[in-house]
Design brief:
Length: 224
């Protein structure tokens, strides 16, 4: 039985993962090194400050900056990210997402956002998605970063759902691990082999009905 679907935001509902990566890559360029898309994978699902550590380590600069300088670098990345997402429109919601959310609602399934991002609420508003959710747990509420399950457990609690009745939708390995640690099933979205630990994987929500997904999860057949 599925009582609640918990959705990551960046890379699952909207294509903001690329804006996060581009902002880190441009910061890295200013610091004198190339931060590759492959290295960027490790920042998915991870908090802003933890992502900064990944970026600095990639450039061999992990010991170079004070705490205050790190705060300034993270603020600079966020400013670049916000400049990019300020131009977002509802058209940037990924294919099939809106239909899937409506379909889940028709099946009386609670819909929760579980994101590490402190910018999640602003992006939901820009993309006209806020009304699709019964609860929003984001980086301003969660204190522990994925793969800690805190964000998902808080989300389940917010709608009174038991963890084993929840399904988490994630594009990041850290998020799949968080779901597992929280005792929840997971659907890896568009992540390839890095999401092999997910209960089920889908390429996108396009053409994906809630019923078909629920049936596939029941059977645990792998890719849908
Ligand atoms: C996650 C993204 O959703 O949010 C990460 O996958 C990002 O890449 C994290 O670092 C924190 O986001 P923000 O918007 O608070 O900097
Ligand atoms: Mg994500």
């Amino acid at each position: 039985m599925i009582a609640c679907c918990i959705f990551d935001l960046d890379g699952v509902l909207v294509d903001t993962a690329r804006y996060h990566y581009e902002a880190w890559a441009s910061l890295a360029r200013d610091l004198g090194f190339v931060f590759t898309p492959e290295q960027g994978e490790a920042t998915k699902g991870v908090s802003r400050m933890a992502s900064l550590e990944i970026v600095l380590r990639a450039g061999g600069l992990q010991d170079r900056f004070t705490a205050a300088e790190r705060e300034r670098l993270a603020a600079e990345k966020n400013a670049r990210y916000l400049a990019a997402v300020a131009r977002m429109t509802p058209a940037e919601v990924l294919p099939g997402v809106r239909d899937f959310l409506c379909d889940a609602a028709r099946h009386d399934v609670r819909r929760v956002l579980g994101s590490a991002s402190k910018n999640a609420a602003a992006i939901l508003d820009r993309c006209d998605l806020r009304a699709c959710f019964d609860a929003v747990i984001d980086g301003t509420l969660a204190t522990k970063a994925k793969p800690d399950p805190e964000v998902f457990l808080r989300g389940a609690a917010a709608v009174g759902a038991a963890p084993d009745t929840c399904v988490v939708f994630e594009d990041a390995a850290a998020g799949i691990e968080a779901a597992m640690r929280g005792g929840m099933r997971s659907v890896g979205v568009a992540g390839g082999e890095s999401l092999a630990a997910a209960t089920l994987r889908i390429d996108s929500f396009e053409g994906c009905s809630f019923e078909a997904l629920a049936a596939a999860l029941e059977r645990k057949t792998g890719d849908l």
